[in-house]
Amino acid sequence: MEEKINCNVADAVDYKGFPVNKSRTGGWVRAALIIGTEICERLSTMGIAVNLVTYLCGTMHLSSATSANIITDFLGTSFLLCLLGGFLADSFLGRYRTIAIFSSVQALGTSMLAISTKLPKLHPPPCYATELTKCKQATGFQMRILHLSLYLIAIGTGGLKSSVSAFGADQFDEKDEKEKAQKAYFFNRFYFVISMGALMAVTVLVYIQDEVGRTWGYGICSASMFVVILIFLSGTKRYRYKKCLGSPIVQICQVFTAAIRKKSAKVPSDIALLYEDLPEALRIDHTDQFRFLDKASVVTEGDFRDDRSVAFNPWKLCPVTRVEEVKMMISLLPIWATTIIFWTTHAQMITFSVEQASTMERRIGHFQIPAGSLTVFFVGAILITLGVYDRLIMPFLKKWNGKPGFTNLQRIAIGLFLSVTGMAAAAIAEVKRLSVAKVSPETTTLPITVFLLIPQYFVMGCGEAFIYTGQLDFFITQSPKGMKTISTGIFLTTVSLGFFFSSLLVSIVKAVTGSGSKQGWVGEDLNKGRLDCFYGLLAALGFINFGLFLLAAAWYKRRLETHSPAPPSPDGDYS
Prior knowledge:
Layout: H1 2-6, E1 8-13, E2 19-21, H2 27-58, H3 64-118, H4 140-169, H5 177-211, H6 214-234, H7 248-261, H8 320-331, H9 333-337, H10 340-347, H11 352-358, E3 360-361, E4 363-364, E5 367-368, H12 375-401, H13 408-439, E6 446-449, H14 454-477, H15 484-513, H16 531-562
Parallel strand pairs: 3-6
Antiparallel strand pairs: 1-2, 4-5
């Protein structure tokens, strides 16, 4: 009997809702089936996004600014929908159903996109004019089909990204030392898979799109997603499932609703009089920050039953610990806000930088590098930086000062600084490219090597390696235990808002710098614009934002020195 009990996982059930047998469910085999969906998600999303600007400009005959905004809005929506996907998974569907449903939606979107590139009625006729203004742009109907395809992919991406890593981690038992170690290794492999999937997208898939055909490229995305869905479903009977426990978003809404309802209530001077019903071991000490929210824990006459016992209603009365958890999440917001600008600069690597590459000499012998494949230097920089940091920097710092690497906020700071450097490098490269364009105005391919763009790709890739890992570490370790899932979603919203801000900034710059016959910094023809000024503007905004981040980080460190209810980070340092 004891052996049978030990074979079970306490907090997991099988597909029928019965206790699972550890020897027959979960583990690496089932986790690998789940990882497959992330490989195809990265293959599809990155393979489409990094080369979409050349399709929008070259086939749909849209301007540079319009094309860039379509891409950044598409990617921004993808990451923003991670919050919706996480909410549905935590509250209603569960992670398994969320992955199955949203991966099917993404497969449908990529299928529609592949069909739209094949049917002549769904894109304008070819145009060989040297000026884009002489070409017939896509009609409203053609653009609606394109947008429908892209946003179906965005919906699928949002649902998948919110659940794949968590469902994969569910296949390992935290209380089993062997499986706990495997779980830690799973996260390392998972991040590696994301990077390798992106690398495959920006090389092989982009080459197929440019040299074989868009229909083949997008069709491969669709077919691979359908195959991986079948592989994922094949493990249904062998997965471990966790029950839906409700979304932290609801808890945050409850605290704010209760506080607003009791806005006229007076917080007692004795904190012990505030409502608390959690066991002592799970409680978080009261703090003095954001004291308006303390009103959610004030017990009033309306909270009592006839027998004078407290009638608990989470929309009217919240325990102190739940209020403090919300306070902890609010304290993360200054750091959250000052990391958005990095993803605005990142957006240029898959929009304007790709279009820059399309105007430059890309031949090596008889082989022409696809413009979108320049992103390989960006992905390569991420992989190299992660390897150097893990094998060289971390051991050196541990030997030098006893700490295993930079703290999470230090990594974010490095990433922000590198983004400023990357945009400065991009501006310098564009000045050189425009100088060549002025002396060769009628040339389709400018006599200047595309490798001039490598520094901006490489520096931004290094920056992402630092800021992505730093943000993920910060938002997970500094959030309360019950809100780890939503903290990841909040981190991903910085990516989303960064892309949206890029779209807004492009629209503003286009409106301010261009009028009438004047194109402005960004517009129809990249060779007649001033993209170097736009990059310079981003570098200036990034530098200002870097200063604001340093202030936010200093404030957060002072706050933790006063109140430290959050669990310590893995490196033993909050800063």
